[in-house]
Amino acid sequence: MNENDLDAASRPFPSPARGRLPAAPRPPRLHLLALNPTDSVTEGFLPAAARLGLAVTLLTDQPEAHERAYGRWDEDGADPRPFPALDIVPCAVRDYAEVISRIAADGRPTAVFTNSDHLQAQAALAAQYFGLPGKDWRAALRTKNKAELRRALAAAGPDVADPVWSAELATGQDPAALAGLDAPYPCVVKPREGVASEDVVLVADADELVRRCVEIRARRPGAALVVEEFLDGELRTLETLGDGRTLHILGAFRTELSPPPHFIEERLHLLPAPPPQPHTDQVLAQLHALGVGFGVCHTEYVVQGDRARLIEVNYRAIGDQCDLVLAELLGIPLFEHILRTHMGEPLPDDLGARTDGRVRMEYVMADRAGRLASAPPASVTERDGVRLDYRPLRGIGEEHPLHRTNRDFLGVLRATGTDQGRIDAAVAEFLAAHRWEIV
Hints:
The protein is an alpha+beta fold and 439 residues long. The chain has twelve helices and 20 strands.
């Protein structure tokens, strides 16, 4: 799958031969780091790069997957989608030294960017190496590593962050070491660098804690784990965008989860603007303590009375198509703004975003392993001021295990408008009228 493509991976710039005209200057080039293809990149960042006149070198350890996802060439060899000039380059993107080497071989970049949870520190280090704007690599590491995030917030003091009990099971450490842990049960165990609620589970006592850790380690050999206090309460998000000088609040969502012991996002509702206080200011203070303030960030927290207690900080755009619908609802070039910050351009003092929009993201989930036998096709309808955009996420005939993560999503329904009651009624009607059958 990771074929060597030396032509794509290394593009030297020799001096023009004597007597020849110099080659035309290259367009500004964005170096984009990615693992698997995502809707955020395919529908958001690549089209935005094209609108900004950027050529893109996409560095990835899954080049064939990206070639397939983009459908880059039709029968005539033309690009049928609004993509920029795009080179897909095989690269061990988790290795920051390899990333820097690949970029250097491609010529001086205009910007280095990633929207991957796993590659923020690598992109930040590469940007720093080339003297380009970017996130602080320490903040990127601090937010990705959930144990380090807890240590950093504890060091900031109780005036900034409400203490959250946590403990770490280090790489290779025996889960049996947790048997005598004085934990506030029930508590949550999760991979230290995990994403998408994968292998995040609520445990009732010490025996279950050890057993769950052994199960997770069977799927993730040697992985470091974190055990944390269970933060019960309404789950919310805060979406921010900054350029190191100005920090804008893009919006906030209320998230509904599946019943314990797992934590799968079933639906999200956009909260009315402006985001509620005092929680917003508390979250911003904690982000500041973590060093977060450049580029886009998606933060999850729990409301407990007048306190905002952080669950995690994802130093990238909100995913699962929420970023796409947020850009549409706010009426701003969100993805262009994000890329411009990494090109060193300041954000406007006022983004000019709409504040009257509402959205409900409804995720249709598999409740068992098996083959998807029937499901509705993609559709877009509009009635009574509500726009329904349904996107299948799994093809009919595909067979999958039950993951208990967002990989169980069969489809996503994006419902937008200005009246929440009408939105909720339209979603209920759509779900009642369609069937998803797994056999």
